[in-house]
Amino acid sequence: MIHLIVGNTGSGKTTYANELKRNIKGVVFSIDTWNNVLFLPDKKETDGLHWFLERIERSEHMMLELIHQLESLKTDAILDLGLSKFGHREKFRKFAEMNNYKIKLHFLDVSKATRLERVMKRNTEKGDTFEFEVTKENFDFMETWFERPSEDELRDGFVISE
Q1: pLDDT tens per residue across span 121-137
Q2: Which of 14, 69, 91, 93 has an alpha carbon within 20 to 30 A of 99's alpha carbon?
Q3: CATH, residue 130
């Protein structure tokens, strides 16, 4: 099964994904970790959103290949990729459908105030889920970028509220 972990910045996606991993013995793919390890060391100040999106697309290509292997082993894949846009989520739904894999959406529905507080605390404490600093400007951008899952998307999924 493929688990799509969806929520805006600071909603607790990585924490939730890691907890789910322990409960179901799945494998987590966290895009923040991939970006931090594979790409951020090479990022220039002039590199913007397009630079990130290109690298995310390449990472996801590899993840899809690995999901085939996990499915053959009957091991769940947990995608902690942000999945901020409907089209991004749809990409994985179509992949699952084409390959006859089960898919489950987990939506972390957390207030903006709580999420901002978590992000600022994570920036300061640099704990287990810290990969890179999220500025207030980045946080505010993501508020405009994120598309809340529709009722249709949530039909067979889970909604986790504060």
Answers
A1: 877 888 777 676 777 88
A2: 14
A3: 3.40.50.300
Tell me the residue range of the domain where 131 lies: 2-161
Longest dimension (CA), the chain: 43
C-beta separation of 27 from 78 below 8 A = yes
How many separate domains does the chain show?
1
Q: Which two tokens stand for residue 37?
A: 């390890």
Q: How many residues does the chain have?
A: 162
User: At 116, which amino acid appears?
Assistant: L
Strands (E), 43-110: 77-80, 103-109
Name the nearest CA neighbour of 81 among 140, 158, 16, 133: 16
- The SS3 assignment for 29 reads strand
Which burial class, exposed, middle or buried, applies to 45 when counting CB atoms under 10 A from its CB (0-12, 13-18, 19+)? exposed
pTM of the full structure:
0.84
